[in-house]
Write a structure and sequence with these properties.
PspA-assoc_dom, 14% strand, PspA-associated domain-containing protein, alpha+beta, 92 residues, single chain, globular
Length: 92
């Protein structure tokens, strides 16, 4: 699976890692639901770090379609709320 972090690049993430990333995504969603901007930023950082930790960065010149697109680290709670689908940032 190819995951893009906006403003940063793409990472190839094994499907086996999605359960852990979904846990991190759920924590982001909980902070959005609570409207807690400070905790939201910390949870978003954990999700993005999770992608960076388990994903292999693709070269900058690679032109792969992204399966998932995540917000940049400096995204606001409102910006991410607008990105959310019914399934969160990471469907499944």
């Amino acid at each position: 699976m190819i995951v893009r972090i906006l403003g940063e690049g793409q990472f190839e993430v094994a499907d086996a890692e999605l359960d852990r990333l979904n846990e991190l995504d759920a924590a982001v969603e909980a902070e959005i639901d609570a409207g807690n901007e400070e905790s939201f930023a910390a949870r978003l950082a954990e999700l993005l770090d999770g992608v960076r930790d388990v994903g292999a960065p693709l070269p900058d010149d690679a032109l792969e379609d992204s399966d998932l697109i995540l917000p940049p680290a400096d995204a606001t709670l409102e910006e991410v709320r607008e990105m959310l689908a019914d399934d969160g940032l990471i469907p499944g």
